[in-house]
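Molecular record:
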Amino acid sequence: MHTDTERCVRAVRSKDARFDGWFFTAVLTTGVYCRPSCPAVPPKPGNMTFHPSAAACQQAGFRACKRCRPDTSPGSPEWNLRADLTARAMRLIADGVVDREGIPGLAARLGYSTRQIERQLLAELGAGPLALARAQRAHTARLLVETTALPMADIAFAAGFASVRTFNDTVREVYALSPSELRTRAPGSRPAGTAPGALSLRLPFRTPLNPDNLFGHLAATAVPGVEEWRDGAYRRTLRLPYGHGVVALTPNPDHIACRLTLGDLRDLTVAISRCRRLLDLDADPTAIDDQLRADPLLAPLVGKAPGRRVPRTVDEAEFAVRAVLGQQVSTAAARTHAARLVVAHGDPVDDPEGGLTHLFPSPGALAAVDPETLAMPRTRRTTFTTLVSRLADGSVNLGVECDRDETRARLLALPGLGPWTADVIAMRALGDPDAFLPTDLGIRRAAAGLGLPSTPAALTARAAAWRPWRAYAVQYLWATDSHPVNFLPV
């Protein structure tokens, strides 16, 4: 979008927050870069240039605006929609792969040479993977500076910098302030003595956001010990690269309040990325709802409660296992099966607030389970054991870098894993915005009630007009039912 100068200028002049994260405005006269909705007086068109990423602005020598704080924009919805090399690379960078494994690790996961990845990202985003990761580190550093009382040296290494000097130079370059000045200017900075690893953050999103089905689904299917709904917040444990964490997510009209407790602060970037992915916060609800509203039978559902998101996951392998456990059983029965596995094979954790006790078992731990101890039919037991063994040995990869079509085909090749299970994994674990469930009983019931075709083949043909947002159409169709997954818990 950043190449459409006229459209970008209109968005900046109207301070349209819908375009935050789509592009960034660099102001030649001040040397700062802003989000489109910046409250400052818009500069003259001749003094504006447009860039596809914050990293590209920083590469061009611009610093972040202190009023609109462009690094806190929602992410571009393109990286969830698209499945090409650039999108897969951006999802991996957001998950901290460059910081942990370097550019060679990024290239190995994507199956391309480092040179080709550098060239592709530079051409499309104006910055290579190192610059993109550096911009992300700067954002993480600012969060830690402003929300904790940690020493600056600890923050530097927690944010992923190789040295304190690099940390200081980067913060000054990006924010035109030293780390100490950032902390002094931060309103309500965390006082000394606060528990290490505890942070309170605000996760931005593009409005509207309907929390009913999003949090309703997470709460209604919560596995005891791993997840819970408490005091208006969804809480769960997180398995992270350097340790574990506990997160509490509370919906608010203009942001999601996020309370994070981490065993290792180096996991902050990854934890935030996975929480945003869980709640689908980088979606563009206006584009999605406008297309679905064009169908006269869906229009009343969209008009009644716009902004529905797809509830996703923080752990793709965990969700795949739970999808198999939930085959042909009720929500309560699926929770019971999962809770038994958690108690028997999950890793214990300490929850500062109590209530959460374990991490969900890893594929490796589940692959070692004696099949005879599983209280499920033999065919589903075979499906379960085959899936966890494939996840454990890496022959089935559900990571953010995977090819969605290829992964779906590999899932369908497993015994007992049919189209419904593969599609629900594609929708919620792989993040495919166009995944569709024409055989789902709830979808067929809703379709019949609305006057849509109710047979899978006919419904799939009708749903072609909803592409590439069929996963969101599923949320609107599910919402016609009175199941607890469709309602925000009281």
In short: DSSP finds 23 helices and nine strands in the chain.
